[in-house]
Write a structure and sequence with these properties.
Length: about 750
């Protein structure tokens, strides 16, 4: 049936106060805008919210009823966050929300639909539900995190008050009852050169209906009509020969089509649907498994964390975040298990941008109380699979985040059975084309095995390891890894006046430790550019090190965005400002890595990564009193495995050498080395004037972008990784940002080794 989204008027009652509201809204921010409470990000606001656990809130609403909805109707409300009592047009009950929709059958009479939602004291609600699971290991569970199933209870453990999300995220919808309902459609390719249009139907009762369909877009249009019995479930409707529409993974947004479906009974329209859909040429289960774990170009993306309050409070809206990720070269986005199932708008945007979606079921960090609401959670999964079936971007359905890893042998049998049998059975029945994974991380002898499946690489940050240690055991696919930094606060954004929170348990101690290690004393924690630069350097270096492994297939950075202003691992802060780490990762993923062995002279180097489109290797080295250059072709295999390149004899015998990789897709890499101690001149000290003409000096000053170098007759050798400037060259070398001394030279001067002078 046709769906009608209702235009509701809301009123919130609290402690005798009454205020009007427009959806979407969360109660804490609504109270602030009404002048009742301080801003929730302020210290006063946090203390105010902490005192609301024993308060009761009442939300009243009314909406005009369309004429088509006078009589038996179904109300669906997928936007209620909280556990509350409801009275909607005479239907009463208790709803434990936050993820699933409220769905009610009503008898709608009169011109208005009226209702009331009562949010009882949250402390009592959470305590009641926590008491039902007393047999769970107390050390692993905190009641506020486990049983409310709200994002703030997982994210921001000791900072984000669990009341943040409570409120209304979307408007309710009505569907007239008494006939079939088209819940979703799906385009598939049952065999090469064939296309199939199917629909998910409820309420058909096996009766004969006239079904009319139109598929248009992507340079084509087809119309179909047939009489067929409709029963509940997935019904194949129309099949045709040809290669239209084209596969989405090849053509992107230009391959999307509009599917319009009308169902008639005895001459009257009984149901209709209009959706934008796409066809995945290779089933996602096959393509995702191949790309993520076996072969093909390296895959990268980020974890998305749903904002848990009014979108107006954030400068980083989901549609903008996804566009930013795609522009940086990301191909995957994981909807993390501490949030909700992805919305239609989110999946639509991923379809348009060519982003593959990894969807976690909404269970995170050892929170999956299926013994309480197992059938309810299965129904949530069914509804999501049906409504998302037409989105070609949806590729992976995962049972949740870090449940098996954190619980292990303590996991209840009912919970393990839910994710290993019940949930995959529903995926096989409703969406067999998707790749199902019981949990993340998952694979090998243990859930977080680096040798198989996906791994959460937190030894690098949480374990305090350096890049060298983390790179020693590279994962196959790192579905989480990250490094913290401070946000760059914009004064014009809501909440900018308040001190950012800290998502890391234990505060800033770990960030300070890494800053000391990378920048020296003092740790400079209050300088946002210092931590942002360190985040970019650390993540870029880690990815480049992993790329030298044959088994490494890619990863998803933790995390893309911030649900609130905080010191966090995000690539785009709460205010919508991309951090340098986004650019560093974008460059690292599309840029090949070069491995130069420690043994001298260097006879062979290794290339790995990049676009997989081939290119060439350029060598520059001094020989016979002049600068020589040599080019070696590279094929596309460097993206799927390590590519050893044997150097010519003249380069092996040269005192120093530069290797540059140029890929067709725009990737570039450079590495320079000495084959031994400088052969000519040894250490040379020059006058300040000569130094300015002839030496490359490392400047570690402010946030400038680079320095233009000119060298006439020397090679400069910094204290670490040599930077070679051949005679007559002009080079622009990035500077290290951060509040170091304005000019720092290794020792008093760098070593300068004269090469052959240019002929006059």
């Amino acid at each position: 049936m046709t769906e009608f989204v209702l235009s509701c008027n809301f009123r919130l009652a609290f402690r005798g106060f009454r205020c009007k509201a427009d959806a979407p809204f969360s109660i804490p921010f609504l109270l602030h805008r009404a002048g009742i409470a301080p801003h929730p990000f302020s210290e006063e606001g946090k203390r105010f919210l902490a005192g609301l656990y024993d308060e009761e809130f009442e939300i009243c609403f009314e909406a005009p009823l369309p004429r088509e909805c006078r009589g038996p109707v179904e109300l669906e409300w997928d936007g209620l966050d909280g556990s509350f009592r409801y009275d909607v047009h005479g239907r009463t009950g208790v709803f434990h929300g936050g993820m699933r929709p409220l769905r009610l059958a009503l008898e709608a009479e009169g011109p208005l639909l009226r209702g009331r939602l009562v949010l009882p004291p949250q402390r009592r609600t959470l305590e009641e539900r926590a008491a039902l699971a007393g047999r769970r290991p107390a050390a692993l569970f905190e009641p506020l995190r486990v049983f409310s199933r709200l994002p703030s209870c997982f994210f921001g453990w000791d900072w984000a008050p669990p009341l943040f999300p409570l409120g209304v995220k979307a408007l309710p919808a009505l569907r007239p009852l008494g006939g079939p309902v088209v819940r979703g459609v799906r385009l598939s390719a049952p065999s090469p050169g064939r296309r199939l249009l199917s629909a998910f139907v409820e309420g058909g009762e096996g009766r004969e209906y006239l079904v009319c369909a139109s598929v248009s877009g992507a340079g084509g249009r087809l119309r179909f009509e047939r009489t067929a019995p409709l029963r509940d479930g997935l019904a194949p409707l129309f099949e045709w020969e040809g290669d239209w529409p084209p596969p989405w993974e090849e053509k992107g947004a230009s391959a999307l089509v509009r599917v319009e479906l009308d169902v008639f009974f005895e001459g009257e329209r009984a149901a209709s649907a209009s959706l934008r859909a796409g066809l995945r040429g290779e089933p996602p289960a096959s393509s995702a498994s191949r790309l993520l774990f076996r072969e093909g170009p390296l895959q990268w993306g980020a974890n998305f964390v749903e904002p848990f309050f009014d979108p107006a409070e954030s400068g980083a809206r989901p549609e903008r975040l996804l566009a930013t990720l795609r522009a940086a070269g990301g191909r995957w986005v994981r909807v993390w298990g501490g949030g909700r199932y992805a919305s239609e708008a989110f999946l639509d945007r991923c379809d348009e941008l060519g982003l593959n979606v990894w969807q976690d079921m909404p269970f995170a960090c050892a929170c999956a109380p299926v013994e309480l609401d197992g059938e309810t959670y299965l129904e949530e999964l069914r509804r999501f699979l049906v409504r998302a079936a037409h989105h070609p971007s949806l590729a992976v359905l995962c049972g949740g985040n870090e449940n098996e890893w954190l619980l292990g042998k303590h996991r209840p049998d009912a919970e393990r059975d839910f994710f290993l049998r019940a949930a995959p059975a529903e995926v096989e029945r409703l969406a067999p084309h998707l790749l199902y994974r019981p949990d993340s991380p998952w694979g090998g002898r243990e859930p977080n095995d680096p040798r198989e499946g996906d791994r959460h690489e937190w030894g690098f940050w949480s374990g305090g390891a350096g890049v060298e240690q983390a790179a020693a055991e590279p994962p196959v696919f790192a579905s989480e890894f990250g490094f913290q930094s401070r946000p760059l606060v914009r004064e014009d954004m809501p909440g900018a006046a308040f001190e950012p929170g800290q998502y890391q348990e234990g505060g800033t101690e770990r960030l300070e430790s890494y800053l000391r290690r990378m920048l020296g004393e003092p740790p400079l924690l209050d300088e946002p550019h210092a931590s942002r630069w360190c985040q970019a350097e650390a993540l870029g270096a880690l990815v480049r090190a992993w790329m030298l492994s044959d088994s490494f297939r890619g990863g998803l950075v933790w995390q893309l965005n911030d649900p609130a202003p905080a010191v966090s691992w995000s690539l785009v802060d709460h205010f919508g400002v991309p951090k340098p780490a986004l650019g560093a990762l974008s460059w690292a993923w599309r840029t090949p890595s070069l491995a130069v062995p420690a043994a001298r002279p260097v006879g062979e180097i290794t290339v790995r990564g990049g676009t997989g489109e081939g290119g060439y290797l350029k060598l520059t080295f001094p020989a016979g009193g002049e600068i020589r250059r040599a080019g070696l072709p590279l094929d596309g295999d460097a993206s799927a495995g390590r590519k050893p390149v044997r150097l010519p004899a003249a380069a092996r015998e040269a005192p120093c050498c530069r290797a540059e990789v140029f890929l067709k897709g725009g990737g570039y890499a450079l590495w320079e080395w000495w084959n031994g101690p400088p052969a000519e001149g040894g250490e040379v000290r020059l006058s300040p004037a000569e130094e300015r003409r002839s030496l490359f000096v490392v400047l570690e000053a402010d946030r400038t972008t680079g320095v233009l170098l000119e060298s006439f007759d020397c090679v400069a050798v910094p204290a670490q990784n040599p930077v070679i400037v051949f005679p007559g060259e002009r080079r622009k070398v990035p500077l290290l940002p951060g509040p170091r001394p304005p000019l720092h030279v290794a020792g008093e001067l760098l070593r300068a080794v004269p090469l052959a002078r240019k002929k006059s």
